[in-house]
TrEMBL record:
<dbReference type="Pfam" id="PF05168">
    <property type="entry name" value="HEPN"/>
</dbReference>
<dbReference type="InterPro" id="IPR007842">
    <property type="entry name" value="HEPN_dom"/>
</dbReference>
<protein>
    <submittedName>
        <fullName>HEPN domain protein</fullName>
    </submittedName>
</protein>
<feature type="domain" description="HEPN">
    <location>
        <begin position="11"/>
        <end position="119"/>
    </location>
</feature>
Amino acid sequence: MVDTKDYLQWLAKAENDLKAAKLILAGEQLYDISAFHCQQCVEKALKAYVLYHEGIIMETHSLPRLNQRCAKHDHTFLSFADSLHILNSFYIETRYPAVDELIVTRANAESAVDVANRVLEYVKNSLNA
């Protein structure tokens, strides 16, 4: 059960997802799995930010929704909006087979790592973590 209200623990989990994404990207061609971990990193970082400011854990996996909530406290988050819409597609589509399967290229995965890194660093700096 997810119940910790310690935003630093959420940030630590986000950092682990980013590390996993980078390791996977450097290894085998599992670009979809790397991209998924980037989505997870950003989700946890944004949840940490909301938790810090509002004391709640938002029960959503939607990066755009989480980002909008963060933007209520800091409009800079709006600059991430377009990138997070793309990253959001890696939550479900990369984990399950589909007729029209989402193909994640190395360039997509590298871009996802870059976005995740930027968002995580911004959140950490904003929270002095």
